[in-house]
Amino acid sequence: MRLLSSVLNAFLPPRCIKCGKILAGTEDGLCPECFNEINFISRPYCEKCGRPLDEKPSGSMVYCASCLQELKPHFRYSRSAFRYDDKSKNMILSFKFLDKTENAKVLGDWMYNAGKDIWNSGAEVLVPVPLHYTRLLKRRYNQSALLCNQLSKRSGLPVEYTAIQRHIKTRPQVEFSGAARIKNVRNAFQIKSPEKIRGKHVVLVDDVMTTGSTLKECALALHKAGAASVDALTIARVC
């Protein structure tokens, strides 16, 4: 396998998933210049939702203002690898829409590292946010399912690829903002196999958290089906 890998790298050398530059053997996914441009999320961040904080609050509990006011949180934990901004969005959009499916390995590895708090808290099963079947036929792959596959390899957790079904064909969330996003996905998801979810600590996987409307609607369906808890893990988030 090492020989085969060396031969493949000689003819198809690994390239930066952001700019396309050929990478040296020690680099993983990004060239040094692009790596320095990506705003990876690190502490201090809200211990509940993972939102980056400008400075660590005083006291032992590190929560953002929104989480302090939320009475019934949808997620036990929410984590993302980096900020979704002008430096990172093309890298994600090419993976999502332009058939750069090979980038799932690098992106999934970053997500695995970002989800350390989730893995250490008894996560049991991975569930990808689903596409409606008409959109899946058009795109030919679900990017969230590809990320789950890589996360499963790293974490050892099983994946329930069809646990959630998007039974209502919604319009793309990018067309909406604010409350309209919530309305667009309301009741759009149902649990196909509740027995696979009931009593489990579920990790819900998606590419980007913008307002969180889609993830929260999926979490609501999972909780109704009897999930013990739901965590959210994404490549990036809008901060």
Name of the CATH architecture of one domain: 3-Layer(aba) Sandwich
Q: Globular, elongated, flat, extended or rod-shaped: what is the shape?
A: globular
Instruction: Report the sheet with the most strands, covering strand number, pairing sense and barrel closure.
Output: 4 strands, parallel
For the record, give the distance between the C-alpha atoms at the N and C termini, rounded to a whole number.
42 Å
Total of DSSP H or I helical runs spanning 4+ residues? 10
| Adjacency order of strands in the biggest sheet | 1-6-5-2
Low-confidence stretches: none
Indicate the mean pLDDT. 92
As a percent range, the share of strand residues is 5-15%
Structural class call reads: alpha/beta
Question: What is CATH's topology name of one domain?
Answer: Rossmann fold
CATH class of one domain: Alpha Beta
Number of strands: 6
Radius of gyration: 18 Å
Question: What's this model, at a glance?
Answer:
By secondary structure, this protein is an alpha/beta fold. 35% of the residues lie in helices and 14% in strands.
